[in-house]
Amino acid sequence: MKKGKVVFAIHGGAGSFNVPPEKEQEYRDTMRMAIRAGKERLDKNDSAAVAVEAAIRILEDSVLFNAGKGAVFTNDATHELDASIMYGENLQAGSVTGVKHIKNPITLAHKVIKNSPHVMLAGEGAEKFGIEQGMEPVTQDYFYSNRRWQSLMESKNRLDETDEFGTVGAIALDKNENLAAGTSTGGLTNKAVGRIGDSPTIGAGTYANNEGVAVSATGKGEVFMRGTAASDINALVQYQNWSIENAATEVVERKLPVLGGTGGVIALNRQGHFAAPHSSQNLLYGYVTEEDEIVIDLFPEKVT
Ligand code: ASP
Description:
By secondary structure, this protein is an alpha+beta fold. It has helices at 24-43, 48-60, 105-115, 123-132, 146-158, 221-226, 229-240, 244-259, and strands spanning 6-15, 81-87, 93-99, 120-122, 168-173, 179-185, 206-208, 214-219, 263-268, 274-275, 282-289, 294-297.
């Protein structure tokens, strides 16, 4: 497929779920709103990271996605949210994990870069930092949704893992030619309390390096962590000069399935080359070119 220079892209998760026809428009509208929010920031000359945060906030505020408001349940019927963001320019990164009372974890992760000397804050400490930074805490019932409750019940009945859908991510290339990537999730349905996945783990679920790529991943976090998925894709591009398409496909479709997990990524380099391979049944994603052409793909074909 020939496309212009891609400057901004999002994903809405990978898994075995297909968007039901009656929900398709709602997914498209929300994803379009997020893509527009990111692109508008870039057009106004804001940084790639600001664009990533703006788009992810919209996805976090929607009940459709497994991030922020629509976060899945842990095995204790609670919600523990993770998010991370990274600048490609200087490899600064911010990440929060296991937060329970923060409406927009991506904003908290971004504040970790801007206003703390650390990269990763967990649980209570992360929330305390957020409140010091002026963020309003929410109660856990803010994250309740009937759909996620049903998923928890099904998961408990089947005694296996659900292939839950809807982690979100964004990648951007700004006018100064800097890349950024961010990811936000509620994790996996029925996950153990305290479990940390790839989404807040720099190099696994999120990575950005101007010399390589910006990547946001979604899928079975444990496998993305063991496979250092996002940083491997970057390394193939940065050190081996692989095309972004080949690098992302190699990791997602060949390396990770052997380790026992599937999923997908979105990846972008400074030339505006974009790839979105997946080994799961589905990956929701969309992108916008420099010339404002928006493409949203809810049923991408698998290239295996
Ligand atoms: N990667 C996320 C996690 O393992 C889940 C997902 O992408 O659906 O927490």
